[in-house]
Amino acid sequence: MRWMSSVGLSLAAQKTEAVLISSRKIVETATILIDGNTVQSKRAIRYLGDHAEHEGPQAGVQEAANDSQQVDHFIRGPDLGTSHERRQLYKRNQIIALAKRAANLLGFSHSIRRSGTCDRRSGAYRPTGKGGAARDPTLEASIDLWQARWDASDKGRWTHRLIPNIRKWTERPHGTVNFYLTQFLSGHGCFRQYLHRFGHDSSQCCPICPGEIVEDALHILFACSRFDNGRRALEREANVEICAENLVDLMVARKSMWEAVNSFAASTIRELRLAERGRPGPGAA
Questions:
Q1: DSSP labels, 157-207
Q2: pTM for the full model?
């Protein structure tokens, strides 16, 4: 508590729960004092839709083993949804099993009763047997609200230009976002316009292209002559001229296009980073 106070953090007593982790067989309790309020430890707590309970060290091992068997049956069993849905449920159950094993090492078992919250986190679709997938109406409504706010906001407009449709993005069949791709999708990265905004570069203009052209994600992706070869390779892969309005749609439609853009982003950001390191800082004489 003293450390939290020293760094300007605090706990809300009315929102705080505690479970005592101990290797003792006898379940003990502890009392925590927060700004004059007492918080009594419990045998079980709920966190982000999961329930952690103290049941003894062997229960967690057995439940983890049972979960593994269920996951294996689900993955191998017939007519249980698409491969994407199986992977989603597999990931969720793997997390559950790992949490139980880790809890067991600490001296208590982590018994997780799946709640509606956990189910919603597993994705917009749930396996329903032979018919494919059923949509979660709660999550659907949440995405619709998210879309409305995304369209109405005045922030993140570059990202909105690339990803106007949230559902298409969140339900894409492939592709992960990494350090390099994130910089292009957000516009926050090793671009002179962004660096200059925070005083890390003396100019926001492209050092290669003629005229006072701002070096931002748009310029690097679609116009800068330094990256013409990489851009032509992307357009050969896409078989169409790329632009801000079709780039993400092309990536989502074909895995090979996603990988091509990802490769372009990585090589480009590395080159921009090297150029940045070679320039004198904004305060240099």
A1: HHHHHH---HHHHHT-SS----HHHHHHHHS-SS-HHHHHHTTSSS--B-S
A2: 0.56
